[in-house]
From TrEMBL:
Residues 1-18 have a biased composition (Basic and acidic residues). Belongs to the concentrative nucleoside transporter (CNT) (TC 2.A.41) family. The chain crosses the membrane at residues 67-92, 98-120, 141-164, 170-186, 198-219, 252-275, 287-308, 329-351, 415-440, 446-466, 548-571, 583-603. It comes from the Eukaryota. It comes from Pomacea canaliculata (Golden apple snail). Residues 1-23 are annotated as: Disordered. This is Sodium/nucleoside cotransporter. GO terms for molecular function: nucleoside:sodium symporter activity. It is found in: Cell membrane. The lineage of its organism: Eukaryota, Metazoa, Spiralia, Lophotrochozoa, Mollusca. Residues 357-602 form the Concentrative nucleoside transporter C-terminal domain. Residues 255-352 form the Nucleoside transporter/FeoB GTPase Gate domain. It holds the Pfam family Gate.
Length: 631
């Protein structure tokens, strides 16, 4: 007779849930045995009955935990859908009902994606139904068909909606070509450039721009989203008033802007705990990977950068960072430099920058970052990632919703402190540098020499390539220089003043004719409003230039962020420190180019006169009036 060796049978791996259940059961059994051993005769019949019932309930729950949780969630879902149906029947058509409808559709989509995602995996379906040779051939045919369709569509749109109506916007098309050529010439390995992600990055950006900036429906959707985000962030004032009092806006940046970062950081952390952000990021990551042909890890990171910062987004792909190729690491870093964090989005909105443009800039910069990254640092190694990696994002360590919100608020402490001290430090350094440059200029009889003055000439071609009007090129070049060499906070603060100037100018010229002698005085770059005794420092820029600046400045690509990026990624993958340090400067420059790329496409899709992108100023403009320098 054969003897069956069952030694390995007892060593079969168990599921984590089963192991946890067995451990809990063993703990309760040990506790019960210890209590019986210590005091076996003291428990009465009632205590022993309660103990047995408790042990039975715990054992039943541990054994059937998944079923119980699913049943509870199903009942909760049915209750909510009943409430939703009643609300739609009771009142439909107002803004509140639309908000409820959109939120419900998004929630149902994310739930369906979580439970049924594997059934809609196109890659798995092809693997199971199409042979390898036929699959490669089919993919090649589909790719070329999409190439032709997208190229014809873009050329048609450019001719009909841009070249005929606003030919001046074609300047930014030349800017796109210039940025692509510059990136290709300075590429790490031009011979290895794969133009597929570059082309489709351009196409996806163009698609987003067309939907958001050229269609009334697309603009209204993002305008609605921008208004909802602004409304949501305004609740940060409740905490600011409680802590700092009703007069907190007297110290606007410290007590009105920074609390928004705390509030939004807590909100983002809560959404991650609930799994909402992971679902959104998975959808966008798969979309970018499908369109651009990039690997799952770098696509997930690019999608996450739309919502979180350059140090938080890589946390979602932490297990893969040490195994990434240098090109993938470069893409991760470029994505962080080319976008902004959701936690500071409210701060920029508080500066008076329209929320809808900031949202669209964040979305459009994600494919741009991947495209420019693959152009400046093409893939020369074999990636180790697969499509299965989409389901391997790290879970949050928090145990409940309260802990998640608290952790998010606590995590913002470092961010708030970092923003505050950097703004103070760089503004102080900038003031010293300007005073020094002005001193050197005065020794030679040249007045008004400053860092901004130098940037306005050095970066003039960049502003011109983006399609900026000639009269505004120097001012936009100044903003780009401030953003690159200091940070985007200071740049947006300067843009805030120009936006406020434009509103004041509009109100003034509606009363007094600027062409009548004595009404307006132009003093260098400043404008003096005679009847209001007010000086508009640095003058004004057009709405078109405001929009270009909004998109061009929307990113963390500056020298200060290089240290932050290196510190974050080195902490996650210490063995890749040398590789990260060798590519961080190139990635920062690529992030800047991606922002310029987004600005080019945004303005190319815009219209000088009746474009839908020119929205009415937000109420926050009223807060900015006091930043005008009164004379």
């Amino acid at each position: 007779m054969f003897k069956i060796d069952d030694t390995n049978a007892n060593k079969m791996p168990k599921k984590p849930e089963e192991e946890a259940s067995n451990i809990r059961i063993q703990e309760y059994e040990e506790i019960e045995n210890d209590e019986n051993d210590e005091d076996q005769g003291d428990d009465g019949p009632c205590s022993r009955a309660v103990g047995r019932t408790q042990d039975a309930v715990i054992k039943f729950y541990s054994t059937h935990k998944r079923i119980i949780v699913n049943v509870f969630l199903a009942v909760l879902f049915l209750v909510y859908m009943t409430y939703f149906a009643y609300c739609m029947w009771y009142s439909f058509g107002d803004e509140g009902s639309i908000r409820l409808l959109v939120g419900t559709i998004l929630g149902v989509f994310l739930i369906a994606l979580h439970y049924l995602g594997d059934y809609f995996n196109l890659s798995k379906a092809l693997n199971g139904t199409v042979r390898v040779k036929n699959k490669a051939k089919l993919r090649k045919i589909i790719r070329w068909v999409l190439y032709v369709i997208s190229a014809v569509a873009m050329v048609t749109v450019l001719i009909v909606l841009v070249a005929i109506r606003t030919p001046s916007n074609l300047v930014s098309l030349g800017g796109l070509a210039a940025f692509i050529l510059l990136s290709y010439i300075t590429s790490f390995n031009p011979a290895k450039v794969n133009w597929h992600p570059v082309y489709w990055g351009f196409c996806v950006q163009f698609l987003f721009a067309g939907i958001i900036l050229r269609t009334r429906v697309g603009y209204q959707i993002f305008d609605w989203l921008g208004s909802r985000v602004t409304e949501f962030l305004n609740y940060a004032s409740a905490g600011a008033i409680f802590v700092f009092g009703d007069v907190y806006q007297e110290h606007f940046f410290a007590f009105a802007i920074l609390p928004v970062i705390v509030f939004f950081s807590a909100a983002i952390s809560t959404l991650y705990f609930l799994g909402v952000m992971q679902g959104i990021v998975k959808v966008l990551g798969r979309f970018l990977s499908f369109c651009l042909g990039t690997t799952p890890a770098e696509s997930l990171n690019a999608a996450a950068n739309i919502f979180v910062g350059m140090t938080e987004a890589p946390l979602m792909i932490r297990p893969f960072i040490s195994r990434m190729t240098k090109s993938e690491l470069h893409a991760v870093m470029t994505g962080g430099f080319a976008t902004i964090a959701g936690s500071v989005l409210g701060a920029y909105i508080g500066f008076g920058v329209p929320a809808d443009h900031l949202l669209s800039a964040s979305v459009m910069s994600a494919p741009a970052a991947l495209a420019i990254s693959k152009l400046t640092y093409p893939e020369t190694e074999v990636p180790q990632m697969s499509d299965e990696d989409y389901s391997k994002m790290e879970d949050m360590p928090e145990k409940n919703l309260i802990e998640a919100a608290s952790s998010g608020a606590s995590a913002s402490i470092q961010l708030v402190a970092n923003v505050a001290v950097n703004v103070m430090a760089f503004l102080s350094i900038l003031a010293f540098v300007n005073a020094t440059l002005n001193w050197f200029g005065e020794r030679a009889g040249v007045a008004g020499v400053s860092f901004q003055f130098i940037c306005s000439y050095v970066l003039y071609p960049v502003a011109l390539f983006m399609g900026t009007e000639l009269a505004d090129c120097r001012r936009i070049a100044e903003l780009v220089g401030i953003k690159t060499f200091t940070n985007e906070f200071i740049a947006y603060a300067s843009l805030r003043d120009l936006i406020a100037n434009h509103k004041t100018w509009t109100n003034y010229t509606s009363i007094y004719d600027p062409h009548t002698a004595g009404n307006v005085q132009y003093i260098s770059d400043d404008i003096f409003l005679t009847h209001w005794n007010m000086t508009l420092t640095k003058g004004i820029i057009s709405r078109r230039s405001e929009i270009i600046a909004t998109y061009a400045l929307c990113g963390f690509s500056n020298f200060g962020s290089m240290g932050i990026m290196l510190g974050a990624l080195t902490g996650m993958a210490p063995d890749r420190k040398k590789d990260l340090a060798s590519i961080v400067l190139r990635a920062m420059i690529a992030g800047n180019i991606a922002c310029f790329f987004t600005a080019c496409i945004a303005v190319k899709s815009a219209d000088n006169s009746d474009s839908v992108i020119v929205s009415e100023p937000y109420d926050l403009y009223d807060v900015m009036d006091r930043f005008c320098v009164r004379r």
